[in-house]
Amino acid sequence: MAKRKGKGKGFSLENPGGGGGGGLSMPGGAKGGLAGKLQEMQQQMLEAQEALGDKTVEISAGGGAIKVVMTGHQKLESITIAPEVVDPDDVEMLQDLILAAINEAVEASQNLAADEMNSITGGLNIPGLM
Predict the structure, then answer these.
(1) What angle do CA 13, 18, 20 make, to 5 degrees?
(2) Which of helix, strand or coil describes residue 5?
(3) Which residue(s) pair with 60 in the sheet?
(4) Which one of 7, 11, 35, 51 has the lowest number of neighbouring Cβ atoms within 10 Å?
(5) Are the beta carbons of 56 and 69 closer than 8 angstroms?
(6) Each residue of 107-123: pLDDT tens digit?
(7) Are 59 and 78 within 8 A, CB to CB?
(8) Phi-psi bin for 10: left (phi > 0), alpha (psi -120 to 50), beta?
(9) 61: which residues sit within 8 A by CB, 6+ positions away?
(10) Is 76 in contact with 69 (CB distance < 8 Å)?
């Protein structure tokens, strides 16, 4: 408990009702008003974030020679390499194709996540909700 002395008599950070809990109270109770809407939005965002693990993006590079599947949580599920692109004399090209496909998959997965969150928040950037 903290109290400020001097000017501004009566200012207190303590909870006058006792017990735990935060100091933010909104008219309409915990589920009403702005606080309730923010809690609901936060719950929707958590559920959407969990659901992203079940969604995937599939990216190909090199005209389909390399295919990458990644989840909405940016976890690789698979990499498929066409046999004809494997050239022991040009390993560098294969490495470049794999990197390009993975980087594109990461970007697509991040865009998927952003689109999901924007559908909930309406494009608002609300710090602290995620």
Answers:
(1) 80
(2) coil
(3) 67
(4) 7
(5) yes
(6) 999 999 888 888 887 76
(7) no
(8) left
(9) 68, 97, 98, 100, 101, 104
(10) yes
The set of residues, in sequence order, having a beta carbon less than 8 Å from that of 54 and lying 6+ positions away, is 71, 72
CATH architecture, range 55-121: 2-Layer Sandwich (3.30)
pLDDT band (50, 70, 90) for residue 13: very low
Partner residues linked to 90 by β-bridges: none
* Closest alpha carbon to 3 in 16, 12, 17: 12
Tokens of 128: 């602290």
For residues 72 and 17, which has the higher predicted lDDT (pLDDT)? 72
Average pLDDT over residues 55-82: 94
**Whole-number Å distance between alpha carbons of 25 and 64:** 56
**Domain layout of the chain by residue ranges:** 55-121
Give 81's strand partners: 66
H/E run at residue 29: none
pTM: 0.62
Distance of alpha carbon 9 from alpha carbon 1, whole angstroms: 16
Token digits for 68?
Answer: 């990458």
Q: Which amino acid is at 70?
A: M
